[in-house]
Design a protein that fits this description.
The chain has 14 helices and 15 strands. The chain is α/β, with parallel strands linked by helices. The strands form 4 sheets. The chain has a 5-stranded parallel beta sheet, sandwiched between helices. Strand 8, helix 14 and strand 9 form a beta-alpha-beta unit.
Length: 557
């Protein structure tokens, strides 16, 4: 009996030591583990006491040998001794990649020349974390993410004020050009492009993005942009009741049968734009793109953000009202924010994400803050049309303080007539405007890019933070403009799962903007144009292809 007990204890210790050794070396399955698995049946099925005694003695000898050889075994599996693992283009997770990332960060300074490298490392850190969170080693990857993310963030913060100053200068120059076009000396003689946003029953986010695309095209053609928003299907009041006019020229009695802008009608004073004008809203002026690549991690979104922020300016009375809400609810820019869509969006456009899926990411943000030595209060601004979401949050997360505009709370929804996006109810429009304002001012945001509102928040962040892609996380999709963007592979990738994609450096990949995982792990679904195959790939192994074109209006900036 004592021998059997000793034998059982020995087996337990043996397994613990083997697992501990493999865990620290970041192996999930290796030769030592396979050998151990092969020995275990012998230990389990040894029937005679003599056999068990021999096996037990051998086991003790193995334990002593492994203990003494541990440093040697670990050194054998470092990256310096495994050549193919020194290349970061190989699959992860693998031995000591986190160590090499740490070394890379230590060797990088916060200069403009290193900005692209730092952004790539940040993307890899996030990609490792997203992937690792789906494995049994979630806690390990959480700890690794916090350590590496804070280290990279500290380097980027050193150059943030410098980059932010240059971005602000560029943004100011762009806004002045737009102001000049939108406020001509004489509205009766200037060339005008009219945009009718009264058609269709889409929500505010969709209408805003349609309008912004038309706005960008109008500026490209050097025409004053005028919108028609009376009877726009969202609310009886026009766009300009809550938001400032885009310029001084008004929509009065321009015909709805205005000619489409084309080569034949380019000399017409007042036109409307054809819906199929390609490329303008998904491109960046070539001279501005050169500067942005050294200053910002998402040049295309930054460029769109200039036009979104120009349109998203509150009327003075509404701005004062928003400030009064800010004081009443105690909002500060240290709060996190979540945008939960549990309404009409779930009918066919998006999957439902439970509150814990939002809050897991929020909790990680606050943990990062605390590890970095920052004093934090767990305050979360909640934007939702669902009173049930409020109830779930308050019941399951009592240690958090949840705040909101007050239009929706744990006992009140925004009620929408059947079949109507959002609502014509008086509170619907100010509610979404206020939510977008506070979320764009939050320190960290979790939302879903399947929603145009989430995309709008990300674009507003472009004018507020120099690294917005690190402070907003989508649960379901990646940010994209009009249609699926193209990427070019910068590293090889060998698929780890059947649904992944093999890629080689230089491959062009067309992303499927509407076909991502329900449990979005950070990978992007795309078609490899070289092979014709479809699958997922880690985004840090490719760069998005941003189209550069000449914009005469901004050529000399």
């Amino acid at each position: 009996m004592p021998l059997f007990s000793a034998y059982s204890i020995g087996c337990i210790i043996f397994n613990l030591l083997i697992n501990d050794l493999l865990y620290n070396m970041e192996f999930s399955e290796g030769p030592i583990q396979k050998t151990a698995k092969g020995c275990l049946p012998c230990l389990r099925h040894g029937k005679k006491a003599g056999t068990r005694t021999i096996v037990f003695v051998m086991l003790i000898i193995m334990l002593i040998a492994i203990k003494r050889m541990r440093p040697t075994l670990e050194s054998l599996f470092t990256e310096s001794n495994i050549p193919h693992l020194t290349d970061p283009s190989t699959d992860f997770p693998y031995p000591n990649r986190s160590v090499s990332l740490e070394i890379e960060l230590q060797n990088l300074s916060a200069s403009d020349d290193n900005f692209a490298s730092l952004v790539t490392i940040m993307k890899e850190i996030k990609s490792r974390w997203h992937y690792g969170r789906t494995t049994k080693r979630k806690k390990y990857f959480d700890a690794e993410y916090i350590r590496l993310r804070n280290q990279a963030g500290a380097i980027l913060r050193k150059s943030k004020s410098h980059r932010w100053s240059r971005l602000n200068e560029l943004s100011k120059a762009i806004r002045e050009r737009i102001d000049n076009i939108q406020n001509p000396p004489n509205c009766d003689t200037t060339k005008i492009l009219v945009c009718d946003i009264s058609r269709g029953s889409t929500g505010f986010g969709s209408k805003m993005h349609f309008m912004v695309k038309e706005f960008m095209r109008s500026i490209y053609f050097n025409r004053t942009f005028v919108i028609k928003s009376e009877d726009w299907g969202y609310q009886e009041r026009s766009w300009e009741y809550y938001l400032r006019p885009l310029g001084k020229c008004k929509y009065d009695s321009y015909s709805t049968t205005l000619p489409l802008l084309s080569d034949e009608t380019q000399n017409e004073r007042i036109v409307r734009l054809a819906r199929n004008v390609p490329g303008i809203d998904t491109s960046v002026p070539e001279n501005i793109l050169v500067a942005l690549k050294k200053l910002h991690d998402d040049p295309q979104a930054w460029w769109v953000g200039q036009f979104v922020s120009y349109a998203f300016r509150f009327q003075p009375w509404f701005q004062a009202y928003v400030l009064s809400i800010e004081e009443r609810i105690g909002f500060t820019n240290k709060a996190a924010g979540i945008h939960i869509r549990w309404g009409d969006k779930l009918i066919k456009e998006a999957a439902k994400y439970e509150v814990n899926e939002y809050m897991d990411l929020v909790e990680m943000f606050f943990r990062r803050q605390e590890v970095a030595g920052k004093q934090t209060q767990r305050v979360v601004y909640v934007a939702t049309e669902s009173s049930q979401a409020w109830q779930d949050l308050k019941f399951n997360y009592p240690e958090y303080t949840f705040i909101g505009s007050g239009y929706v709370n744990e006992s009140r929804d925004i009620i929408k007539p059947r079949g109507v996006r959002y609502s014509t109810i008086e509170s619907a429009l100010p509610s979404i405007l206020i939510d977008m304002h506070f979320l764009s001012k939050s320190a960290y945001v979790v939302c879903t890019f399947s929603s145009n509102v989430c995309r709008g928040i990300y674009e507003l962040l472009m004018t507020i933070d120099a690294l917005p892609s690190d402070i907003l996380q989508s649960l379901d999709k990646f940010y994209h403009g009009n249609g699926g963007p193209r990427f070019i592979a910068t590293w090889d990738h060998n698929k780890r799962k059947n649904d992944e994609l093999d890629i080689k450096v230089g491959d062009e990949l067309t992303a499927h903007s509407h076909r991502q995982h329900r449990d979005f792990d950070g990978n992007i679904k795309a078609t490899n144009l070289r092979t014709g195959k479809k699958g997922f790939f880690p985004p840090y192994k490719a760069e998005i292809i941003v189209k550069a074109i000449k914009w005469t209006v901004f050529e000399d900036l």
